[in-house]
Amino acid sequence: MVLGENLLVIFSDRPIIRLEELYGKGHRDAVRKLHNAVEHGYFVAVLGARRVGKTSVVKTFLNHYDYNYLYFDLSPYMGLKAVSFRSLAPAEIGFDEEILSGEAQLSLALISLKLKKVKLTSEAFQTNFLTLLRELNNKYNRFVIVFDEAQVLAFVKGINYKGLLQFIHNNYRNMVVILTGSMPGLLEKIISPADAKEPGFARYVEEIRVPRWSREETIDFLRKGFRGNNIPYEEENLHEVYEELSGIPGFISYYGLLRTRGLKHYEALSRTENYAISQWENDLKAFLKIYNSPLYIHVLSILSKTITGATWSELQQELEKRLGNSMGKSTLYRILTNLLKAGMIQKQRDKYIIVDRPLRKTINKLEKTQYFLLH
């Protein structure tokens, strides 16, 4: 079967919500896996880099299988160490509000922050949230709650998110929670803390990873999109897009969108690279606010200077040279593990490497500013 044979290629800077428009075998497989997990009542963690298509996978799943849901978008709060409980106002309400009792409608209005004159505390928010969920659990055979960029939950003040998730798991049998995260290591730490006395709901979390596009998928996607929009292209340019954007679907689709607006290849690619760098800059700053250690900056700086990567011993040697003292194995292991789980580096055979060219460029850019010197 030809790649994307029956799919409608759409260049967009918004999440895809229709299965026939969701490109990539890994993405469509993720939708099927998500459906299977939800039908079995499992909590799910959908993991992958920013702009890789996690939100598209989740929204396509909700739309295609017609689930009733509440959708919480925490992405605007990434990198903040103190987040108001008001950030938990639902971004989307995917069910008929009129079927609710008066009490549940009031609870929904309160957590949606629609009652401006009512002073809402975090305790009242949590109580009303659980009141609403209790009724939804009784009315639907399967109801889905989505927390997009769920690692932010750890920084929401006044809300016991672990207790809340555990309570939903233990008491609301018809409810399933989907957590998405572009920092898998931090999300993993949240749902399964190392100091937990009991494994709790984390034992039942199904992990689904959303992959990048392969070179073949990237070229096929662009080729079909250009032909559908009557846009001339050079085959070598498609390979260049894959190389420069590292197979990230959101960036590749954005490049295609710019081409449909009349931009030539090099201008569209340059603008997309700048956009990708700005996104990575936000993510990198958010990461460094959480893992506040200059060692991360040094490791990323070293790896950004090499295309082929560096071995453990090469990293240790270069770090000791920069710091002027010895580097403990456990410290370096922790640094590399957190960077791997954050999706910023990969391990290929015995070498650690930054696979995203825009991320390498972002690190080099920040090194030229005062930002790295201040952290």
Report on the architecture of this protein.
It is a single chain. This protein is α/β, with parallel strands linked by helices. The protein has 2 domains: 25-209, Rossmann fold, CATH 3.40.50; 291-374, Orthogonal Bundle (Arc Repressor Mutant, subunit A), CATH 1.10.10.10. It has 14 helices and 9 strands. Strands 3-2-4-5-1-6 form a 6-stranded mixed sheet, sandwiched between helices. The chain has a 3-stranded antiparallel sheet with strand order 7-9-8. Strand 4, helix 5 (161-171) and strand 5 (175-181) form a beta-alpha-beta unit. Helix 11 packs across helix 12. The longest helix is centred in the C-terminal third of the chain and has 26 residues, at 265-290. The mean pLDDT is 90.
The CATH topology of the largest domain turns out to be: Rossmann fold
List low-confidence stretches. Answer: none
Helix content range: 40-55%
Q: Briefly, what CATH class of the largest domain?
A: Alpha Beta
> What strand order characterises the main sheet?
3-2-4-5-1-6
Order of helices and strands: HEHEEHHEHEHEHHHHHEHHEEH
Q: Any idea what the CATH superfamily of the largest domain is called?
A: P-loop containing nucleotide triphosphate hydrolases
Estimated structural class: alpha/beta
**Average pLDDT metric:** 90
Ordered list of secondary-structure elements with their pairings:
Elements: H1 25-39, E1 43-47, H2 54-64, E2 68-73, E3 92-94, H3 102-111, H4 122-139, E4 143-148, H5 161-171, E5 175-181, H6 184-191, E6 205-209, H7 215-228, H8 235-245, H9 249-260, H10 265-290, H11 294-304, E7 310-311, H12 312-323, H13 329-341, E8 346-348, E9 351-353, H14 357-367
Parallel strand pairs: 1-5, 1-6, 2-4, 4-5
Antiparallel strand pairs: 2-3, 7-9, 8-9
